[in-house]
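pinned: reference chain
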Amino acid sequence: MTQASPSVRATGRRPAAAAPSRPARGALSGRPRRLGPWLFCAPFVALFVAMYIAPILYAAYNSLFTVRRSGLGLTAPTEVFAPLDNYVRAVHDGSFTASLGRVALFGVVQVPLMLAAALALALLIDSKSARGRGFFRLTSFIPYAIPGVSAALVWSFMYSSTSSPINRLLEPLAVTVPFLDDGIVLWSVANIVTWSWVGYNMIIIYAALQSIPAEVLEAARMDGASALRIAWSIKIPSVRGALVLTTVFSIIGSAQLFNEPTVLQPVSGGSISSAFTPLMSAQSAVAAGNYPYAAAQSVLLAVAVGLVSLIFFKLTRRGDQA
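pinned: its structure tokens
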């Protein structure tokens, strides 16, 4: 006969049986916690793949085929796998290469002028003596809120040789500006783009100016620095990141030039051709039913823009390291 333990003899109760061990809470919740971020990112990843990655891959794949027509063209065209034919044709296509050069010239001239105007406006609105900042921010941003096609339609009326109010104002001076002539039409388009996008870039730069500590500006004023000196030595270096961002956006936007020249084309008198810009050239290939050639032009344009943006980032990063 076994004897009860002293604690049992003292209390007259037996100890309760030990509860079965349970796995740690973290062991069960670890997998859901690891999957949580992926579940939150899944909608964005799905949309990004469907709307960006898939079209790019399909365009690159489609560009590897070439359209062949046999006989007198009475039969349906066929697509033959020829990986380099469309790219060789695009490189030797004078209209397409000319459109690339035209857009490159457009970007080299228009982008710096537009960003300089945006920076100047942002500095003026941010100055200590500025009045009516909200009004000027709004009025500067309104052109961007107008759709590009509508803006181009308004400016086509301003450029028209028969209805241009600008030329009517210049009549007493016996001066007429041929806005749509071959040598000027590119800069007429640049004027529309600049008018539409200066306010947008100004808002980005102005937002960056607001992040400069007020103590730094006040210390500079106490040291006797003028407003121009503060702008040049403190404000402009502080918004360098915003300037880089707006420059990259502007480079990409220049490569995508399409709406403005397309709207002006009917009233240009032939100075704006169907291959005035790379996107217009690709659109002409689509209208002709040659989708693989249009895809090859688009891929070449995307590669060129990517290389220019990469080189620009490398140069700006080297400046930061120096």
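why pinned: The beta strands are 65-68, 78-81. Residues 44 and 275 are 35 Å apart (CA to CA).
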